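Page 37, top half.
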Amino acid sequence: MCGVLCVCVFVGPGENLQDIICFWSSREVRIFKSTAERKPSIKMTTSNGELLGLAFMAFFIITLSSTARYYFKFFCFIAFSVVCAVGPVPLMLLRPRDYRNALIPAYLCVGFGKMLGASFTVRGKENIQRNHGGVVLMNHQSALDLIVLAELWPIMGRSTVVAKKEVLYMFPFGAACWLWGTLFIDRQNRDSARNVINKEAKAINEKQAKLLFFPEGTRGNGDKLLPFKKGSFHVAVESQAFIQPVVISKYHFLKSNAKIFNRGQNIIKILPEVPCAGLTKDDIPALMERVQKMMQREYELLSEESLSINNISEVH
């Protein structure tokens, strides 16, 4: 039997030829000459091999490292969210400040969230009354709450969300947010923020609009909801509107401290409306306590159910 061995020998610098010596057997030796014109194709092959190797290495690291996977998924989510928001801007310019401008980005955001493993089931749709406006309150856990907004936007009707003014300057995402009617407030200037919100509150009754708030004011991912801020309750009482509590189960699949971003099924529950007719500013503390207790109780129930759905055993 004859063994097979291939050896490539390159001639020195300045030469135009390279000798490829192939030993097909122990008795026969053939020498093929190839011109320098083949060098670019050899370099291209090497380059493609390097890219393939880097891609494989990145895939290998992301697969094995939860930290790498965490950052990779969040990068993809943020990048895709910006693309989804900015892509339809030319269409948004035809009707600026219209809530319907967010419908296409919302649809795309929900779909991409499922691809990343963040899936949501919406319950309590029968509690939505589209024949009048109101104040919608949601618990806030992560940047992934953008998917929650995307789930709610098509079913709530005429809506607008309240965000800090810094978001407006996050170009081009901020421009898209403005075009679909986001209300920007300056948290450092309470009087200014309240005046802006009070003006918009008129739309609750005049346009049957819904204002979406995160009453905690900041992200919280513990077992207890953070204390609520008074701003949204002032709007509800002043406009004598309904409060619509919306509770999202705890993101057990997401652990920021441990840098874990797995797949998870989550629950969004829309609770019955809380009327504010006849209430005054003096009733706000009691109203806040009532609504927070209601949402806290539901948060605990949904989070426990979410553990069961995702087959997770959480150690406290």
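Page 37, bottom half:
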Amino acid sequence: MAGVHQSTMKFLNITTEISSAIGTTVKGPKLYTLCVFTWTPPVELSIIKALKIYIFPLMFLIGFSANMMSVAILKRSGLKKPTNVLLLGMVIADSMVLLQGINFAELLSCLGPNYEYPKYCGWQYGVLVNYFLLACDILTYFFVEYGIRVNTTIPILITLERFLAVYMPMTFKKIVTTKSAMISVIAAYVVWLPWPVFYLSMFRYFIQLEKIMLFAIGFQRDNQLEIYTLLNYNVVPFFSTWMPIFFIGIGCILISIKVKVTLSRRKQMTSKQDSATWSARTTRTLLTTCLFLFMSTIISFFLDYFNNSIDDGYYYFEEECATLNYMLNASSNFFVYIATNRNFAKIFKDIICRKKRRQQIY
């Protein structure tokens, strides 16, 4: 699921059929929703199964473990530093995105041992189990969509923080504090909170053939479709795709120019003359982190673009490729930290060595 919103595109075309099948909104002949996997070519379906059953859970284990190590490194480095507060906010959002790798409820709805599969998608495991899987799916959808959106906002804050540090160091000291960084991170989470709530409010669960539970978009009024279309395909992509691409891209270019000029001047100065108040090491770490998100956002944009015109048989294959892109980005920060920041790498080594010493003692 490359951002929960992508999984709804095909459902928009079948909502009327679902409603007709249930008989709640339209009276007429019963029409049932066929699973999209029915038209997926065998090779692509095999790749999808490998991703969802093996690769994504493995990526969750590696990525989540790496993110927990990032938390330990940032805590050891000091959470009173504004940059560490911003990075911690990103790590939390990354961890939420990685939950898609263990969304067993979604997996069981389309690739589970269903006796009607592959003709129909949905949960077919009895009433209690179906409702349990529904609850798990809703929670996963919420946290993944929430994490994806927040994860595109915090890099903008990081870029702004570095821009102030290298271009306006005096202003930077006054306004960039631990408190302001914490308020900014909390604001990023608060601003995006209404979106996953609204998004999930558009979903309904449906019962097919009196035994198959399906969780999909279902509009009860025409204005809901109009509002959803406006937000999901215009407003939200603007703030979570175009804005990050513009601000992070332009910001990184400007910051890199300033850093290069400043470092060349440092070589010609004595230590007493060097008045730079920012760390090149920290700047390198933050910019690399933002650039990973920048590239991931561009890839997501192109995948979304092709998703609108792709054939039904290849829809889920493209969707899982987008999910892979999100999960790779959500797993990358730890490796960026230890590769670009010697202080973080030293803290990581100290943590590992301490654990080894404890094991030897016991």
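Margin note: The first strand starts at residue 203 and ends at 208.
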